[in-house]
Amino acid sequence: MSEATRDAIRGLLDKVDTSSAAAITDAAELVLESVAAGGIVHVAGAGHSLVMVCETFYRAGGLAAVRPVWDPAVLPLTGARRSTRVEREEGVGREVVRAAAPAPPDIMVVFSTSGRNPYPVEIAQECAHRGVPVIAVTSIAASERSTPRANGSLAEHATIVLDTGVPPGDIVHPPDAPRTSPVSTILGAYVWSVLLAELDELAAARGHTLPRWTSANIPGGDEANAEFMARYGDRIPEL
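The structure corresponding to this sequence follows.
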């Protein structure tokens, strides 16, 4: 196994710990304020960033107050070439926000490594227009080297930016001329997991009980989750 690749990934994780720690705390504060006020955490992404939407939604140990916001056309599994084309089309991102209709105290989390296609940028813009705060999980380094296809970048339209530090091209192996070993999913999942831990500690310190899913594969899991199905079912139709 490539020691250099393992070191590169560990180094990127360590960099997140140091460079994004304050922003993760700020993001956890924003999520807690939203959930405590009865809001929904809307989560969006396109292409392989939809992996992170799945990671946040209906996930054991995850927040129950999460709604996935997406257009089926941006899912590579239903047409890879189409997914790339659609996330570059103007108007699609705005339309998915209009369909979901987030409103304060809701918030939006947008996952996009490059953050330069119309889809994630429009989602952030439309949410800002509605007074809905946006947490961007993106890579500043990748964004600066990506082809600009939208009015600005996702980071420029976000309330809080969580910089994953994913390198341009999303690859780290071999170190001298990277061509494989993508890392955006690893770093995105890490950022979200750390955010949830920070959120848990903030909630505990303030005496707030978070709505969290229990694994359906352990005894009592279905019963524990029934409360949240009833609480959020009408507002999160994907449940």
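The chain has one domain: 3-232.
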